[in-house]
Amino acid sequence: MNRLSLLVLLTVAGLAHSIQYPCGGSCGYRVSQSPYRSMTYSYGNVAYDDDMTRVVGGVGAAEASWPWVVSIQHPGSPKLGHWCGGSLISADWVLTAAHCFDKIENVSLLYVVIGATQFTKPGLGAVARDVKQVVIHRYYKRVDYRYDVALVQLERPVECSSYIQLACVADPTLRVSNLKNCWIAGWGATTARSQDYSDRLQEAKVQLIDVKLCNSTGWYPGEIHPYNLCAGYPQGTIDACQGDSGGPLMCQDNDAEYWWVVGITSWGEGCARPKQPGVYTSTQHFYDWIVYNMRVHAIESAS
Ligand code: ARG
Question: Best mutation site among 55, 223, 245, 249 for ligand 1, i.e. most ligand atoms within 8 A of its Cβ?
Fold first, then answer.
């Protein structure tokens, strides 16, 4: 084989193994960080005052802050309909946690809200979609939340806007542990005890915690899998909580503006306790699974 055809072959093979992003081919950009964002930011600040519900240590996010974060909803949920979080990774696929479907008998009752920040004031940027199918990792186990990863296909694709953008999924080459600016976001419980979910998306900055430390005595001895990430603070106080599951752990690229979804909120012992940080499914470990399953199940459902 000559060099040119080898190059062509490698390029084609390379394309087949990566995620193709619509939205002008971009992902992970917080579009509204432009002048438009500062405009809504003041509104956001006003809204904080009556909504100073701290997520376990977070604050209310400004409109369109995290435009790939979605809410998976269930009509039976008394908590403003919200059931789990998720990340939009293509025009019609959402990445979330497998355990979100433990108690769901009929996935066709679920729907997904995209482009919203506050449920009671979803605004013009928000859209809802029915669920076409749910793909759960075949090794997922309820007992210890192993392989806690799933994909949700929307009935119909969504269009990108300043409120709706795609997440960048961390690929196997990304050095996740080097990333410094990491955040979580979700509509989950704002205190460990409250069963109430938040009306406004909450956000908090967290630190990535070394998996070895996280897996050690006094923390979560032996419970952390090689494809998990831990994030939060050794002393607790800031963490994800019930209802944040499926949503993203996001880190900004070290050399660029955009953000990676590096983790999927999976579990934690209580919320915000010392030495019991949030445990996340590492998306880079499931990158190939994600790409492969989006493709296979899209073809299946189309035929
Ligand atoms: N399993 C929870 C859920 O279903 C997420 C828990 C995250 N907990 C934590 N302490 N970080 O919503």
Answer: 245
Element (H, E) at 113: strand 111-114
For CATH 2.40.10.10, the residue range(s) in the chain are 3-23+68-164+286-302, 168-282
Q: Ligand 1: distance of its center to the CA of 165 in Å?
A: 24
Q: Take atom 1 of ligand 1 and give the residue whose Cα is closest.
A: 267
Q: Residue type for 110, please?
A: L
Confidence at residue 14, expressed as pLDDT on a 0 to 100 scale: 43
| pTM summary value | 0.87
Of 86-95, 104-113, 194-203, 287-296, which gets the smallest average pLDDT? 194-203
Helix or strand run (H / E) with residue 60: strand 59-60
Nearest to 184, CA basis, from 61, 14, 90: 61
136 Cβ partners below 8 Å, 6+ apart?
Answer: 98, 101, 150
Please give the CATH architecture assigned to the domain spanning 3-23+68-164+286-302. Beta Barrel (2.40)
- For this structure, is 74 an active site residue? no
Catalytic site includes residue 148 = yes
Atom nearest to 232 CA in ligand 1: 11
Which CATH architecture is the domain 168-282 placed in?
Beta Barrel (2.40)
Round to the nearest angstrom and report the end-to-end CA distance of the chain: 36
Give DSSP secondary structure letters for 129-163. Answer: EEEEEEEE-TT-BTTTTBT--EEEEESS-----SS
Would the pLDDT of 39 be above 60? no
Q: Is residue 99 annotated as a catalytic residue, yes or no?
A: yes
Catalytic residue of the set 82, 99, 137, 285: 99
